[in-house]
Amino acid sequence: MAAVAGEPEVIRDKAAMRAWARRRRAEGKAVALVPTMGFLHDGHLSLGSVAAAAASASGPVAVVVSIYVNPSQFAPTEDLATYPSDLAGDLRKLAATGAVAAVFCPPYLYVRAGAGGSGHETWIRVERLEKGLCGSSRPVFFRGVATVVAKLFNIVEPDIAVFGKKDYQQWRVICRMVRDLDFAIDIIGSEIVREADGLAMSSRNALSIHRSLVNAKTAALNGNNHSQQIKDQIVQTLAEAGGQVDYVEIVEQESSVALERMDRPAAICVAAWFGKVRLIDNIEIQTHHPDGGASI
Amino acid sequence: MAAVAGEPEVIRDKAAMRAWARRRRAEGKAVALVPTMGFLHDGHLSLGSVAAAAASASGPVAVVVSIYVNPSQFAPTEDLATYPSDLAGDLRKLAATGAVAAVFCPPYLYVRAGAGGSGHETWIRVERLEKGLCGSSRPVFFRGVATVVAKLFNIVEPDIAVFGKKDYQQWRVICRMVRDLDFAIDIIGSEIVREADGLAMSSRNALSIHRSLVNAKTAALNGNNHSQQIKDQIVQTLAEAGGQVDYVEIVEQESSVALERMDRPAAICVAAWFGKVRLIDNIEIQTHHPDGGASI
């Protein structure tokens, strides 16, 4: 994408962010939000391009990328302090895309505890979709994600928000929250960006997971819709590659309900440990009913 | 208040409501929301006037009253089906105030459950303030209130919202939610409207509660800041009047943390049973530090 917008405006204050977005709206632009935790790679950068493209189809758009490492989605056992960051590098990469009008990088977003227990205490839970998959080993993760995203929505007041489908469960949780709480925001799920060899763009992912998912999809499209057989194959493939599966689940795409048979649009979601690194990946499969009817 | 606005516009659809509010904003008006469950009395009607007055101080305002009996704040043991309603009467009363531009009365607000567990599943909890007081005997109540109010905020997108301070804990829960989730909405707590004899405007309230609260306030301002003594006196007064106290609590105003001594701005909150009717009331007391310094 050619650099046309130049340097994005860097905004650190909530009120200034909201005022900026309202000015863009008053100018007749749609506002598109891309929430990130920074340390950006090409997968993130593609989200901004998706936001610009999706919105510009219906008129001018101002893309806002937020960079904020959200403490509430880390458990006490998880290492928030060592989460990587590189704000200067992030700003340089975003400027180079030419697609980003503003970067929102607040130093903090939560009220700190004061006297009388007055700290942050409001939490949003998406009670079914937050369970299972990554929610099983990270019980506070989606509560933290839903809550910080709602805060960002109320600060930026975007018309559009873009989430990567690499974090499949997160994307579905956000879609469900937006529906249930009536946010006036279109959520766009951006396709996974992969390296030439198929590796999902992430600092922690493994080619073997992707290969196992592609093989599973091929098997499913060739008629094997038995979820357990497919899952067993993935577990075995990853074990042979030196990984240990945390979970592999085959779920109905929208509801994340487990499927015994892939007889409707399905997603295979995998998390696995390779040494001390936990990797996730997923693949969507548009399977059909065995009677040959339309997909649901 | 003189009738100037005439008949309010009656809106039942979410998208139509949001579009209506956005048009008012585009005209340069602030939008003020007054959420109710209908069956309006003068206490409710005063909220609309408060909204109009508060907003008009800084420019023109469009007041929206919502009427929706929120099922999610009723427990299965509580009687949602017999909650009183009188929409025609409500509309007549609101038209007579001349202060209300629109009435939002949706037939439903929650997604119904479909296949694959796709019904409403997103809940907002204000984890400390929802506990104690009315939350002790009504454990899902404030979860339901916070969630439906967030939905109404996202549908109407108001600049201002008005809540009656008769429902003291509810008002504080909403203030905390708005702070924690960064809603761009000014919350106004409207003072309790009372009959000439001091009875709070409610179909279910009792003069004896109000009298006991006024006596307690007098005692506190005369120097008795021992919460337990004040509470014992209220329990005894209400027992003599034939009531049975569900709770009487003396709390710090903003945090709702219990106070042993009323040495800072306090609220006394009471719930009591008179026969099969549960009544609530409260009073605020601006007490001072015993050292004669400024109040906190």
Automatic annotation (TrEMBL), chains A, B:
**Presence of the UniProt keyword 4Fe-4S in the record:** no
- As recorded in UniProt, its EC number(s) are 6.3.2.1
- List the pathway annotation: Cofactor biosynthesis; (R)-pantothenate biosynthesis; (R)-pantothenate from (R)-pantoate and beta-alanine: step 1/1
The record's section on InterPro entries has: Pantoate_ligase, Pantoate_ligase_C, Rossmann-like_a/b/a_fold
Tree of life domain: Eukaryota
The identity of this protein, by name, is Pantoate--beta-alanine ligase
GO cellular component terms?
cytosol
PANTHER family, sorted: CYTIDYLATE KINASE/PANTOATE-BETA-ALANINE LIGASE, PANTOATE--BETA-ALANINE LIGASE
Reactions catalysed, semicolon-separated, are: (R)-pantoate + beta-alanine + ATP = (R)-pantothenate + AMP + diphosphate + H(+)
